[in-house]
Design brief:
Blueprint: E1 16-21, E2 27-32, E3 36-41, E4 46-51, E5 56-61, E6 67-72, E7 76-81, E8 89-95, E9 106-109, E10 114-118, E11 123-128, E12 135-139, E13 144-150, E14 155-160, E15 165-167
């Protein structure tokens, strides 16, 4: 039996690279190669679009739906305010990870006080939201392809291009 979509969101001008869904807010954030992040509020029937200046390869929505972090090629993480007056409001910009046209994972940590990203050189990089200098919290043996954080348990999992899945030790898991 063929299945048909309930809804299609077709505003992206190029390949969709990443999606994050706010479990409490009902928001859907979509990052695209066209350099835009589109945030859909399905409940309210609204769409907001932010141009971030380069292909967006990873996204993480804040738990309270007030901001998101986006990984923009070639290696910038941007923290963007969703509660502004409609104008793009960049809260911060971070560098120090290399995404090199691939997915590396992006997540908030420490009750959203920091941002984690993988890097193609095998590093897990952490930025304090109120700081600027990156801190390397783990060095994997190969490029990182995904990173997931479970805030309730404090666990961080990374997947690597060599097929390994690593749970960071608590002493290294930010």
């Amino acid at each position: 039996v063929p299945r048909f979509p309930v809804q299609t969101l077709a505003e992206a001008g190029d390949s969709v690279e990443c999606i994050d869904v706010g479990t409490e807010s009902g928001l859907i954030a979509v990052g695209s190669v066209d350099g835009h992040v589109r945030v859909y509020d399905i409940r309210a029937g609204q769409l907001s679009t932010d141009a971030l200046g380069g292909p967006v390869v990873e996204l993480a929505l804040g738990r309270d739906a007030q901001y998101y972090a986006a990984a923009v090629l070639p290696g910038t993480v941007r923290l963007v305010d969703l509660q502004g007056d409609g104008a793009l409001s960049r809260l911060a910009e971070y560098s120090g990870a290399d995404f090199a046209d691939t997915h590396t994972g992006l997540a908030f940590a420490d009750n959203e006080a920091s941002i984690l990203s993988g890097s193609v050189d095998g590093r897990v990089v952490r930025w304090e939201v109120l700081g600027e200098e990156p801190k390397v919290v783990y060095n994997a043996t190969s490029a990182i392809t995904c990173l997931k954080r479970h805030e309730a348990t404090g666990s961080t999992l990374i997947g690597c291009i060599d097929g390994s899945l690593v749970k960071l030790p608590e002493s290294e898991s930010p």
